[in-house]
Structure formats: structure tokens, C-alpha cells
Write a structure and sequence with these properties.
It is built from seven helices and eleven strands. It has 221 residues and is α/β, with parallel strands linked by helices. The chain is globular, with a radius of gyration of 18 Å. The chain folds into two domains: 129 residues, NAD(P)-binding Rossmann-like Domain (Rossmann fold), CATH 3.40.50.720; 76 residues, Regulator of K+ conductance, C-terminal domain (Alpha-Beta Plaits, 2-Layer Sandwich). Helix 3 links the parallel strand 4 and strand 5.
């Protein structure tokens, strides 16, 4: 997968290095040339100097083929602008914005963006949202048979009943993160853009669940 990282501070550079180590292609943008000194000379990704929400620079960074974008500059407004351009102009589904003000994070979640507040920030958290890993789980039972995974709802399932998702994937949606709050879904709950799904699934079926969530929905006839 190609990932665009905007911001080459400690978090952005760490993300870029982790992504490259994981076999992904990476382009990292920063307005300051000296920021790239955080990257080793052997860095296999692409560096682009300039403003992260500039459309031409994002195209130069390969956003048109990107599967994910991380906006991790030191400014909330810049990160949200990057996130909105990535989602609304270039149609990138997996967008994570670093937000310093937790109160503002709730507002941006209502716009459908995954956000990570500074107080809860770790590189692992962002990696898990950008690149869902079948081995990652929020909780695993002692017998290692069942786990709960977190996944942002994908475009094919927006506007669809979660009950249909459960039937299609043989899982159970135990909770939803929506508009900064959590709720327990009913049989009639419909997925909305920006929802975070907490899903109970058999460990040996986690990979199939991720694949099903990304696949087009087959309409009943």
C-alpha cells in the first residue's frame, strides 16, 4: 500500500519508518527541509517539501494511488485541512488526523475523520487505524478463540444495516463509536460515515472480516 504522511516530526518520521519496514511505499511531506534530517540517509520513501494540504504537492507525493493518509503536523487546522482534502478531493478512505485539542477532536469525528488526540497518542494507534492488521485486537479471550477488533466503517457499508454486516461476515458488532460517544447497536441500526465498529469475531476469521468489509456489498434480490 502507498501511504502519504504529512508532517515529519517525531511522530511522522516514526510512522514513515515503520511503514517502510512493513513493506509499504511512503511519501512524507513537510514544509521545512530540515525536518527530513529525522530520516536516515537510507530512507526508502519519497520526501516532498511544502505545505501538506497543497493539492499539487499531494499529487507529487502520490496521493492519487494512496490507500491511506496520516496528517500529523503540529497544527490542528493544518491536519484537518489535509484530512478533508485527502477524503473529499482525492477519495482516500483511511485518513487519520492528529488533534491536539481533545474537544475539537469530537467535532472532527462528526465530519467522519478518525482522530487521535495528543494525550492518547502513540505510533501504534495510528498504524492500527491506517493499516488494520488481522493479528491486532482490542481484546482476546483466554483461549485465543474470539477477539474484538476495531475498524472504521467502509464506504460499501455506509447506509447499510449493521445486522446485514453481521450476517455477511458472521460476526457481531458489539458497540459503535459515533460522534464522540459509544452506543450499543440494535437490529435496525444503520452504519454512518465515521463510525468506529467494535466487532466480535473468531480469531481465525479476522482476515476474512477485513476483506469482507472492504469488498462491494452484494444487494439482495
Amino acid at each position: 500500500m502507498h501511504v502519504v504522511v504529512v508532517g515529519c516530526g517525531r511522530v511522522g518520521s516514526s510512522l514513515a519508518l515503520n511503514l517502510v519496514a512493513g513493506g509499504h511505499s511512503v511519501a512524507i511531506i513537510d514544509r521545512k527541509a530540515e525536518a527530513f534530517r529525522r530520516l536516515p540517509e537510507s530512507f526508502a520513501g519519497t520526501v516532498v517539501q511544502g505545505i501538506g494540504f497543497d493539492r499539487d504537492l499531494l499529487i507529487e507525493a502520490g496521493i492519487e494511488r494512496a490507500g491511506a493518509v496520516a496528517a500529523v503536523t503540529n497544527g490542528d487546522n493544518s491536519n484537518v485541512l489535509v484530512a478533508r482534502v485527502a477524503r473529499e478531493t482525492f477519495g482516500v478512505d483511511r485518513v487519520v488526523a492528529r488533534i491536539y485539542d481533545p474537544r475539537r477532536a469530537v467535532i472532527y469525528q462528526r465530519l467522519g475523520f478518525a482522530t487521535v488526540a495528543t494525550v492518547a497518542w502513540t505510533t501504534d494507534q495510528v498504524m492500527r487505524r491506517l493499516l488494520p492488521d488481522p493479528t491486532d485486537a482490542e481484546w482476546t479471550d483466554p483461549t485465543a478463540k474470539v477477539c474484538i477488533v476495531e475498524r472504521q466503517v467502509t464506504k460499501p457499508w455506509i447506509g447499510k444495516r449493521l445486522a446485514d454486516l453481521e450476517e455477511a461476515t458472521m460476526t457481531r458488532v458489539v458497540a459503535i463509536g459515533r460522534l464522540g460517544a459509544a452506543l450499543v447497536p440494535t437490529s435496525n441500526t444503520v452504519a454512518q460515515e465515521g463510525d468506529l465498529l467494535y466487532v466480535s469475531v473468531a480469531i481465525d476469521a479476522v482476515g476474512d472480516f477485513h476483506a469482507s468489509l472492504d469488498a462491494p456489498v452484494r444487494e439482495a434480490h
